[in-house]
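[User] Could I get a sequence and structure tokens?

[Assistant]
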Amino acid sequence: MIFPKALNLLNLKKIIQKGWSLCLVMCLISSCNQNTKVKTLKLAHALNEEHPVHLGILEMARVLKKVSNGKMQIDIYSNGQLGQERDLLELLQIGSLDLTKVSVNTLENFVPEFKVFVLPYIFKNKDHTWKVLKGPIGNALLEKGSKYKLRGLCYFDAGNRSFYSKDKPIYTPQDLKGLKIRVMNSQSSFNMVNALGGSPTPVSFGELYTALQQGVVDAAENNPPSFYTSRHYEVCKYYTIDEHLTVPDVIIASTYLWNSLTLQEKEWLTIATNKAVSYQRKIWQTSVEKSLEEIKKSGVQIIRPEKTLFQNKVQKLYDAYKKQPEMYELIQAIKKAAE
């Protein structure tokens, strides 16, 4: 016979045991949740979702999720949802955004050393371009941004930029005279258009279609996929392949993000960016060919001018750097890499 007092003690013991069991289960659940917690990175850019650079970013997100076994993922905000390139870099600098894609044209306003890549005809061909970007020079420049809270991760192919115009075909630099030409907010781009005889006019990419329609600018310059996917070919019926610039796009991380990552997480992100670069470079050339084919079908006249006419006009931009020893030395190193 169990007396009431003993019964109460047994019940109390059972309650305590259940309590400890429940505690243990909750701890295990909590531990599991911590182990499976997903780190979500926010990446924003200003291009539309048809652009090959956006497709490269999608591949980067896919690989990151795979190599991290779902522990890291990227949420992508395209089409300038969170702002244009300058806005996005500023968001990175205050830690409100994790990652972005920007053109070197924009980046030079934040990391001055990158302006070397915005010199016209700095690269001889695609092999030369990637020898520099994937070598010591390119890697050193990616690191330069860290002191501005912008940590470069990799370069994406953005091809060659050429002029396109609304009413007047461009065969020689003389044809640029008197034209208001849209440029990115980049001093190097201003200098280049001035050297060629045009009138540089800064307009954000998101506003460019309307600016061309309304005559705010007469012409612009960009690579074939951007000309096509932005539908600027609906307004501009002349595309002059002078290939004056070969400026890469750069995937940038906020140093707030980068410094918060573990060594393992940094390794996963590095693997993802490297895989994405290889993938994006392959689809870029296909996109260039398709874009040129489609704009030609739409009635755009494709012009292939004598490039030396343009090259000769911009030589003075190189001469100006002789007074800046560090930059001039960097220019010489890039030229030497072509040998």
